[in-house]
Specification:
The protein has 680 residues and is of the alpha+beta class. It has five domains: 61 residues, Helix hairpin bin (Helix Hairpins, Orthogonal Bundle); 243 residues, D-amino Acid Aminotransferase, Chain A, domain 1, CATH 3.30.470.30; 107 residues, OB fold (Dihydrolipoamide Acetyltransferase, E2P); 150 residues, 5' to 3' exonuclease, C-terminal subdomain (DNA polymerase, domain 1, Orthogonal Bundle), CATH 1.10.150.20; 71 residues, 3-Layer(aba) Sandwich (Rossmann fold). The chain is 37% helix and 21% strand. The strands form seven sheets. Strands 14, 15, 16, 17, 18, 19 and 20 form a seven-stranded antiparallel β-sheet that branches. A five-stranded mixed β-sheet has the order 2-13-10-3-9. A four-stranded antiparallel β-sheet has the order 5-4-7-8. A hairpin with a 2-residue loop joins β11 and β12. α1 packs antiparallel against α2.
Length: 680
């Protein structure tokens, strides 16, 4: 009899705790204090310990548990998790609307909602119970993060069963499904972290001397992908649902959202719109209110509301035709310039950098903004103490737009050109007709450091970052980049934080990178004006380092794209005794320079210029560039009339608009990969 009473008490406690969880984490309401709720959870935990046979998968005590994982399992998505096409103007949105009208003669309406800046997640429920949670991954294969997702309070472990009086507006088919909850259901949404929570966590990390999270999306993604669920549980993550993938009798996206609400999910506040012309006012309303949202949004999602028409419209590449995101323009904020620092690059070029009062711009914490050169300081008439307008160029690079002169403090004074290198205190020079200052000291520690970092990246040596390079320089273990290849275990063991295993791993990594292609080696040398494209052109034209070293300006002019400035830089570099010693030191320390592989001129990549925009998911940008170059293609950083192909990843920028205007061939990532396979 006692056992039955305890079982009833356990069930009552579970219902009560889940009710208050739903109120607080989904509806943002609170009827009892957190300490009272904790007391109920503690009572439930003690009873379940006493009667473990009454523990069920949906019990609140089952949210946190399980041992840390060694790695995440890969899982296949039953339906691909596709990305969205982005548009940046009303004209682009109208072009999208006109395109989809050509594919259907049936009238349709729209469902619109804020575009949340988070991490996409798929939830699988079996007979109402959470079975699996998976990240988007590459759209077809993601990672199983179920153990971590269970710690997110706004994710129901068991779907809410609505009362019959809440279902009067639904069809009988939907009503029956919501009450019975049979079979496999899939819900998709976004894992996010609220603005206040993000700021509070970063404030705490700052006090503890820890690195700050750059932006909320990174914090959410990093928290969800922790191998230890206890770490995930300590972060206040939220789940916002935006799509019911399973057919339960709903005919529209709007009906699907109402079903998700009944099932106990937190929703993004969407709206049904029956006229295309109403979309702009909704977009403008969101743009105006974006700062008042509890989480970050970066645009408006517009979806064809009718599910049958949406399906009929189909998919182009990796984006559904009936879905588009109208992105907000670059966000502008104001902050104060606290100081100007000068950064010394590997060539000795000195770049002024504004030190800012830290501020969030487009979801990222910004502390610095490059000013490029002294002319930019003069153009802005910038002074320390000025209040400035800051934005992110291309939603990536922080840039100062203008000074608010009305707020300039009376104590300010113009920023003067520096006369000495801030690191080695050697006099600086302005070379030729350039507007850039240079430190010309060959022994400048800052130049050495940047040259070594540059070489390590070119050689693709993993595990050696700026901090380790600083330690190696401080201990006088290395003087320049070639010394990396002469490192011994005892050298590394001198450094703080290095043990036998770590030292052995790093030496193994260095040894595996001693063979390098000629073009990569030219990049590693850090020759002024010689980037990856020029290095590849030189390697293909000359075929060997010896021939490049002996070339004169006329021979260099034979290489496409090389003019007087680059030719002079190459001749000056290879005539320098210091450069000759550096090349010799590399070879003495075991570096072997290999020829570039032959390029088949029949390849569809040969002599074509490619530009990449957005985030690629099957490879990173460097890998994509390497593949293009290996097949004879060229890389450009901006779209022009000379661009042959624009490769479009997730969240593309304004390059997509420019490419459409210039009739450049646009490739989805899927089409790009297919093109590689065909050419290979």
């Amino acid at each position: 009899m006692v056992k039955k009473e305890e079982q009833k008490r356990i069930e009552k406690l579970k219902q009560t705790i889940n009710y208050h969880r739903y109120l607080y984490h989904v509806l943002d309401k609170q009827e009892i204090s957190e300490s009272a709720l904790d007391s109920l959870k503690h009572e439930l935990y003690k009873l379940e310990q006493q009667f473990p046979e009454f523990i069920t998968p949906d019990s609140p005590t089952q949210r946190i548990g399980g041992k840390p994982l060694s790695k995440f399992k890969k899982v296949s998505h039953h339906l691909p998790m596709l990305s969205m096409e982005d548009v940046f103007s009303k004209q682009e949105l109208l072009a999208w609307y006109e395109r989809i009208q050509k594919f259907t003669k049936t009238a349709f309406t729209f469902y619109v909602m804020p575009k949340i800046d988070g991490l996409a997640l798929s939830l699988i429920y079996e007979n109402g119970f959470l079975k699996q949670a998976a990240t988007r991954g590459n759209g077809r294969i993601g990672e199983d993060v179920t153990q971590n997702v269970k710690t997110i309070e706004s994710v129901p472990l068991r779907l809410r069963i609505p009362h019959k009086n809440e279902l009067s507006l639904f069809s009988k088919e939907v009503m029956d499904n919501l009450i019975l909850q049979k079979g496999i259901w899939e819900i998709r949404g976004e894992v996010i972290i609220g603005k206040k929570d993000f700021e509070a966590i970063n404030k705490k990390r700052k006090l503890q001397g820890e690195d700050l999270f750059a932006n909320p999306r990174n914090m959410a993604a990093g928290s969800l992908r922790q191998l230890d669920p206890m770490i995930t549980a300590s972060r206040p993550l939220q789940f916002v649902a935006w799509r019911l993938e399973t057919e339960l009798g709903q005919k529209t996206q709007q009906a699907g959202m109402k079903i998700l609400e009944q099932l106990g999910f937190k929703l993004s506040p969407g709206k049904w719109i029956n006229d295309f012309d109403q979309i702009e006012s909704y977009y403008n309303s969101l743009k105006e209110k974006r700062e008042r949202f509890a989480f970050w949004i970066d645009g408006t999602v517009i979806r064809v509301n009718e599910n049958d028409i949406f399906s009929h419209l189909g998919v182009v590449g990796k984006t559904p035709r009936g879905l588009v995101a109208w992105k907000f323009p670059a966000q502008e904020v104001t902050t104060v310039v606290k100081d100007i620092e000068w950064f010394v690059g590997r060539t000795g070029a000195l770049t002024p950098v504004a030190v800012l009062e830290p501020i969030i711009v487009a979801g990222t914490l910004v502390k610095h903004a490059s000013l490029h050169n002294y002319d930019e300081i003069k153009r802005l008439d910038l002074r320390v103490g000025d209040t400035v307008i800051l934005y992110k160029a291309g939603d990536i690079i922080p840039k100062i737009k203008q000074v608010i002169f009305e707020l300039r403090p009376h104590t300010s004074f113009p920023i003067r050109l520096i006369k000495q290198c801030p690191v080695c205190e050697y006099p600086v020079e302005i070379k030729d007709k350039e507007v850039i200052l240079y430190c010309v000291n060959r022994q400048c520690r800052a130049k050495d450091r940047e040259r070594i970092i540059h070489a390590v990246v070119a050689f693709d040596i993993q595990g050696i970052g700026p901090q380790i390079i600083n330690k190696l320089l401080d201990h006088h273990i290395i003087q320049w980049a070639p010394d990396i290849f002469s490192l011994k275990k005892e050298d590394l063991l001198e450094l703080e934080g290095f043990g036998d295993i770590l030292a052995s791993k790093l030496l193994y990594e260095i040894n595996t990178k001693q063979h390098i292609r000629l073009s990569k080696f030219l990049v590693a040398l850090g020759i002024k004006h010689v980037g990856e494209e020029t290095a590849l052109d030189l390697a293909h034209h000359f075929g060997s380092l010896e021939k490049i070293c002996l070339a004169d300006d006329k021979t260099f002019f034979e290489v496409e794209g090389i003019g007087e400035v680059v030719a002079k830089s190459l001749i000056d570099f290879f005539k320098s005794s210091e450069s000759q010693k550096e090349i010799e030191a590399y070879q003495t320390n075991g570096v072997i320079i290999e020829q570039e592989p032959l390029i088949h001129t029949s390849s569809s990549f040969f002599d074509k210029t490619f530009v990449i925009t957005g985030t690629l998911e099957q490879m990173n940008r460097d890998q994509a560039k390497a593949l293009i170059r290996s097949l004879g293609g060229k890389i450009a950083t901006s779209v022009s009339s000379k661009t042959d192909y624009l490769i479009v990843g997730k969240d593309p920028g304004s390059k997509l608009t420019q490419a459409k205007g210039l009739s450049v061939m646009i490739l989805s990532e899927q089409a790009f990969v297919a093109m590689i396979k065909k050419s290979s």
